[in-house]
Task: structure prediction
Amino acid sequence: MNRVSDVTLARDRLVEFIRGVIDRSGLPLLVVGLSGGVDSALAAALGVRAAGPDKVLGLIMPYRSSSPISEQHAVEMAAAFGFRTERIDISPMVDAYFGNAEVSAVRRGNKMARERMSLLFDVAARENGLVLGTSNKTETCLGYATWYGDAASSLNPLGGLYKREVWALAELLGVPKQIIDKAPSADLWPGQTDEGELGITYEAADRVLPLIIEDGERSMARLTSATGVEENIIRSIAARVNRFAFKRALPVVDLLGGNPIPERVELV
Result:
């Protein structure tokens, strides 16, 4: 199967994808966690194009250590595309759980991500809507998402897009330049960046991953030759794809010899 790589065709296909999910679900509103980053901005822009600005609600959910610039960019994004927002400070919820305990930045960051997703699904239930996902294919391959946190959603239009395609599509749709140009960050602690935490640049990952995932390339010699990426980085990328496979699957179940549950049951 030929993968859609042209950004205009990808835009049109993803808009139809969103409309199809809305039609099948009967839930007309799209709720998106608006972080101020390019991924959530693109998801919101696609949602607006698919359903209209009055059918998109952006939740802005800062923590007390979140960058004020992130919230500013979220507000600017909503203003640029004309959809409404709602602000919920997650600090009291996260701090009530941890109290005065000394916890790692990763644990606190994961709790923040899961708190946000809990709020997104609750607001979606309140508004009779769907949660619009924001995780791109590069992040998913590298396991750079919180399981049952930002990796959870009702539908994810970014799930088939590599990071470079996210940037290209965001530019095509008119996402504000200051959002596209800034360093990607989950903003889980001050100064955090995606690439700094991963130890891998998106530019390198997006040279390697399409060859491995789309073309099925496994030869290290051909991968290094085709990408110019060092062998240790390629091995690190492949190791993350393998290590975080569990994040891309439903929980493992022992069927005890029974059948899996079908997606649909059609009675005659």
